[in-house]
Amino acid sequence: MKPIRRQSLVEQTVAHLREGFGSGQWSGQLPGVLSLASELGVSKDTLRDALQQLEDEGLVKSCGAGKRREIVSRRTGKSFRKVLRIGIFLSEPLEGDNAQAQHQLLSIKRVIQEAGHACFFASETLSQLGYKCSRVARVVKAANADAWVVSSGSSDVLEWFAAQPLPVCAFGGRAKGLPLASSTTDAGNSMGEIIRNFAGHGHRRIVLICPFSWRRPTLGPAVTAFLAALETSGISVSDYNVPHWDESAEGLERLLESLFRVTPPTALLLIEPLHCAAVLGFLAQRGIQVPRDLSLACLVPDPVFAWRRPPLAQFIMPLQEHVHRIARWVDAVSCGMIDLEQKSFIPTFDPGGTIAAARKSGR
Fold this sequence. Notes:
Shape: elongated
Number of strands: 14
Radius of gyration: 26 Å
Oligomer: single chain
Helix content: 25-40%
Distance between the termini: 93 Å
């Protein structure tokens, strides 16, 4: 029997670093030699020997004199895949977002981690930062990420990200025309389909209740597509069709009171399931029945809609397509490739049972 060989301190350091690379304890650039040696409790010479061994194995890459080393992992042959630290900038706090968004964002985080990268949600959301670029910059700087996924970014925020040296992928939001990767849902196709459905049932007073970020600082592509679809159907458009409102429970109540006071809409299109629940409560209190008195649809799906009778009209979003697209972008970035493809996916419309012919008195 061969005697047990004790590992040298250099070998122990190498093993510890390998384990840390795999768990995401370190990703992207390593700390400087002095800092890392102090963190590990070894001498500078021991750490340098360990780093040299990791360089020989292809797990660490030297970036030149005076620069910090980068972590990479061997992929195939002589190709290398960098282990990344990727931040996800949320639009809204995850716990307050809709079920669809939660599922997608958690799936994106999971698939990034399963690919061997470290992934985290930014310490503050875009809405908490007021979509202010100076505040976003502060969070980005503190996070020290190698790349970012930005969920539902405004045009200002995504323009700021596009000007940064870091790779960025927009998940939704106003990325069209900017030099960054994106994965979005085809709002134009969705809006055209629902308006044709409403108009085909005789509806003329159609109102879109959408979040602030869809309306400001300018009308977003989904709202523009909605108005264009109305005009294509021969319906004159005004602020009535896309009203401005204070995005709060009280603000929505005031908006609904105003809408149904004189010329009530015959069809409502909502974006958020949360807003849909509030609208259904408002209608029930006033004896307004769906779809007898009002047709109703929601762009973002929610599992509870299928339990309603009749089921709510909604769009089934391409969840896995978005997750796979972002996974491909991460893979390209980790290989040092530039991926600026802007991919758009088409949702499927489920008419449910909440769209019916407009009542003659309400046309």
